[in-house]
Amino acid sequence: MFGMHTGGLIGSAILVGVMGVGVASPAQAADAPAVEAKSAYVIDSAGTIHFNKRETSRVPVASLVKIMTAYVVLREGKLSDTITITAADVRHAVGSGATTAKLKKGERLTTRDLLYGLMLPSGADAASALARRYGPGNDAFVAKMNAAAQRLGLSDTRYTNPDGLPTPGKGGYSTAVDQAKLTKVALADSTFRTVVSREVQKIPKTALHRAHTWHNTNKLLESASGIIGVKTGYTNAAGFCLVFAGERSGRVVIGVLLGDKDARRFSTAEKLLDYAETQISGG
Description:
Helix content: 25-40%
Radius of gyration: 18 Å
Structural class: alpha+beta
CATH topology: Beta-lactamase
CATH architecture: 3-Layer(aba) Sandwich
Order of helices and strands: HEEHEHEHHHHHEEHEEEH
CATH superfamily: DD-peptidase/beta-lactamase superfamily
Strand order of the largest sheet: 2-1-9-8-7
Largest sheet: 5 strands, antiparallel
Number of strands: 9
CATH class: Alpha Beta
Distance between the termini: 46 Å
Number of domains: 1
Strand content: 15-25%
């Protein structure tokens, strides 16, 4: 077992007001950027809310679910654990038309490697393998996800799987506020922070597995400065989703966009980060 590690600006600041929604904000000031996403929420590490729109609406959040998957794995396992990919892991991702890390049956990868496969290309195959190991099994893993949500005060969140794929009749959901709360806590872990901030991760070929090159689906890492991560998501029901974080004027700003359009979520996130920076600096 290994614990969460804190350090630097994020480690010291990110836990401020973790469980609270925040303090009074200039959220809907006249100069706030237009946000077309169905739900949105932006808060900084001092607890100031910079933008909110239907932030407590319960909605599906697609692959943002994988933030909690990574959070649970970082408490249940060791980064050096080795996990063997099964046919069921591969079939789960391919059969559902989900994004994958292109894993193959019989490959053996470390938990550290699979976290990159989970968070960068948003691999449902990596999610399946991690849940199978650390539940052990999907149902037990989902129970751990929901227990963690309860511990963290995510009262408007319910998980039904570790990957965010639609589960008809089961009704998984979360809110922009809850996703921001979870992200604040997750970013206090140095391994999580390193993974979600990586644009490209190359895993060299070994006797245990093929070579893999995983590209981060978060285009903010390419287009804006000071970006920390965090995660993209999409399903028909959820629309395009994004949790983003960046360092601005000595604070960490975390934002959530739910039910947006593809490219627009990234440009909107940049505008929200710039807006928050202006508010923080008193501009």
